[in-house]
Design brief:
Mean pLDDT: 81
Keywords: Membrane, Transmembrane, Transmembrane helix
Number of strands: 0
Shape: flat
Largest sheet: none
Low-confidence stretches: none
Number of helices: 7
Helix content: over 70%
Length: about 170
């Protein structure tokens, strides 16, 4: 395996990790709506929304760079320079490593989200409220979606790796 190929794989794995961790921004964006009834004025709410939108844009730019423009990062940071050997002796394809990484990330997402989902579900049933009246309904939905995404990563890791490697 070439040094550039190794760095490409590492950068794409970091991009996948960033992609799946940026999902938590969406419930935070929704939770800012609850400030309207409190003491927060509309100027402060607009500022919070602007900061959240800027964070989302920055996340997407960084994710796009890491997943689809990894060669540019390698060239700018000069990661492939100053190595005494041109090749690393690994007989593994890049898609295989990306498949393994996406499966591991899917497992980690599931392991992280199931306890929070079960806790939120337990509290929901304890309070005996309608779902729309439950205060943490957005977090319950968020953790449910994360579990589904983790499951899809576990089962479709090869297709995800082929798509990323193709781009």
């Amino acid at each position: 395996m070439l040094i550039k190929t190794f760095w490409t794989i590492v950068i794409k794995i970091i991009g996948l990790w960033l992609l799946f961790n940026c999902i938590s921004i969406l419930p935070q964006f929704y939770s800012t709506l609850s400030f309207i009834n409190g003491s927060l004025d509309t100027a402060s709410l607009a500022t919070v929304w602007f900061i959240l939108c800027a964070a989302i844009v920055i996340y997407f730019i960084v994710i796009r760079l890491f997943l689809f423009k990894s060669q540019w990062i390698i060239d700018k940071l000069q990661l492939a320079h100053h190595f005494t050997e041109e090749r690393i002796e690994l007989n593994v394809k890049a898609t295989t490593v990306l498949t393994i990484a996406s499966i591991i990330m899917g497992g980690l997402i599931i392991v992280e989200s199931i306890p929070h989902f079960c806790e939120g579900l337990f509290r929901f049933f304890q309070q005996k409220l309608l779902f729309k009246e439950y205060g943490d309904a957005n977090w319950l939905i968020y953790h449910f979606i994360k579990i589904i995404i983790g499951y899809l990563l576990l089962t479709n890791g090869e297709q995800i790796a082929k798509y990323i490697d193709k781009k």
